[in-house]
């Protein structure tokens, strides 16, 4: 048995959870195929990495060994092993137990890209002659101090101590136009064929020198050429910034390079305080960002600039003989290494973007499927509120998504992808977990915009693959382009697909760089060192915004509330079942074209009385209910229901008859909460359908016109689910399910445990009736419940419904007069949106059936004889049917007695052959046809 109280929140949540788990069990192979997608993509990445290893990482050109090198350029090669000048690229991979010391160098612009003169004019004659000086700017608070330091910066002459090369070179300012190397094992400024420079205030004649540096086989003879250095004072750092910004020239392969060598801001430096800011050239294309552990190769050119100004200050304090020698730059020793480029991590960001986004179509199509097939509606009509539905559905999809990403991480780690192995797994899991929460919220939000699964599926997959491609070919380059505003990057990350890609991009970069230098990837300590903190905050905020928007839209769409409903003041709950103000404040009715029928007027008066003096005996009370659909395409508004007043008692089955388009379905839709009344209202168990529909659903059963079933759930599982919504538990639930299945002939032959998708139309119809009646709801609406049933099944179903009305008020619509007469205590014939008559079947037949119907079949030549015979019996008889010798006549009862008709027929049989004849009283079908024909085409109503 069911508890007297409605099912609690937890009971309803338990019901839908069990239903979802059963549904999931039926679709287990679909889930297996879904979970295998990450596995296939991880295998694909592993194969790509293996191919890359064989062709690049493990190739002869990318390791330390012996190579055949053409030294002479004559096409004859010679085997060279280890690091040689001719095979210096191996320096990255070969072992260096004793790294080579190199003289420190600063970076200066190419001669064609240096500042033309002190005024930075457009006169570039010195550039064409390659004689422009290298310019150093100075500024600070003390001009005189700046002038002194400026004189001390550059040495007046070049000296070289051949016995101590590094000490001799360190006493001078050496420079190169070649950028720094990724490693100083082989400094590119020294081992290149380009000239090295010695910066002096003035270059005397014959100022070029040649010197040797390094040990075999890495010994080089370098030409040292003098270049003029020019120190210029500027009054403020603003001027320095302006000239540096203006002084950029287009380089060859290096992009924009600065005309200025360096600049010093002496700030508040004095004899007791040394405080300097240094500008240095860091403008090489593609190398401006120092990410994580990535080496910034430009910093190897900065220390000589620091040493230069430091020596100038020491000479200012202690005299010209005081200096700090910067003798050489030397790397740490290292073992032999291999090239370890993790291409799988670099391209993995777009792969894993697709993998995670593929969950969106799965979730979205599932939600739209329930919406398209109105399963969400039918669950709500049987008492499943919004709270349990959204909570369990969210948790259900979250569990599936979490399992999905756990499998992704397990697969990726198991097969050896560095993306998963090097990055902290807990960090990855939190990132994925936050994003799938956002993704579920977005699916809930956008599901309200779709009504068909096909459309939702297409749009979702376009979003998935479009997001991945746009991230790769648009967003990726914006991230790495330092000239692109970081603010716009933030704006782009507000798009969920881009925020996912940005997080995966950062993880991929850390994995790539960690694998390259033999360190770990991203850890929690790196959270604020990159854009991951920004991505986390965006995802969390958008998650909550999407949830709030979903709640708001659901409230608007499901309840028909005003968009600003949360600002409206709620009226206090009234204890009286029916508010008396409903009838007292009704507008004054206009004059009706046709007088109401007496029975309809009496029903309306009864409803008025119930509004004043409520009665618990009436389960349903409709008070002047109206529904008007707005006109479209130039058509006038459609008045579907025109002021219906009706009272239905408990334990009564009320039948609604009427032609198609009469307004029956609109009435049922209003009573079940699918549409809101235009005016008027109705009360179910004392609750207003305009305000308390959620509470009404807990005691209501519905058998819709079209069967709303899950194709993969069995009949038994359907009834178990809806039984739990009716607060049936334990043995009472199982007993009620068994009795329901037995009552509709679905218990035996294994039918109860077959998926509903394999049921015939009649079986689905019987299951829908059983669902509407399980748990003995107080009110049941049945829309043509016996459609498509064979005579035996229909009679059995009628018995079930007749038994159910002992404890339920039932409103039933049907086109079967036999069904209406068998089941209904009262009938109402509905035409043009209004009740035309109301009463029990006998009363209606007596009221509208004042005639006998005589049917006679003869040969064609005796049709006139039959017509004359009937006229003799009843002059006012009317022929209502005539085809192929068969004629029907309607004979007024007050004009004839039954014995007279029999005598007339016997007389006719003696004169001509009568094949068949019959005399019948008026049927309910005759009443229906008569009322439908005589009803006005339209009525004016209040």
UniProtKB/TrEMBL annotation:
Give the protein name, as stated in the record: ABC transporter A family member 3-like isoform X1
Pfam families associated with the record: ABC2_membrane_3 (PF12698), ABC_tran (PF00005), ABCA12_C (PF24526)
Protein topology in the membrane: Multi-pass membrane protein
Q: Which InterPro entries match?
A: AAA+_ATPase (IPR003593), ABC2_TM (IPR013525), ABC_transporter-like_ATP-bd (IPR003439), ABC_transporter-like_CS (IPR017871), ABCA (IPR026082), P-loop_NTPase (IPR027417)
SUPFAM superfamilies, per the entry: P-loop containing nucleoside triphosphate hydrolases
Main localization is: membrane
Q: Which Gene3D superfamilies match?
A: P-loop containing nucleotide triphosphate hydrolases
Q: What family is this?
A: Belongs to the ABC transporter superfamily. ABCA family. CPR flippase (TC 3.A.1.211) subfamily.
Supply the source organism for this entry.
Camelina sativa (False flax)
Membrane-spanning parts: 32-52, 343-369, 389-417, 429-450, 456-475, 487-505, 535-553
Tell me where in this chain the ABC transporter domain is found: 620-857
Cell compartments where the protein resides:
Membrane
Q: Which UniProt keywords apply?
A: ATP-binding, Membrane, Nucleotide-binding, Transmembrane, Transmembrane helix
**Keyword ATP-binding included in the entry's annotation:** yes
Q: Answer whether the UniProt record assigns the keyword DNA-binding to this protein.
A: no
* Gene name tied to this protein: LOC104711238
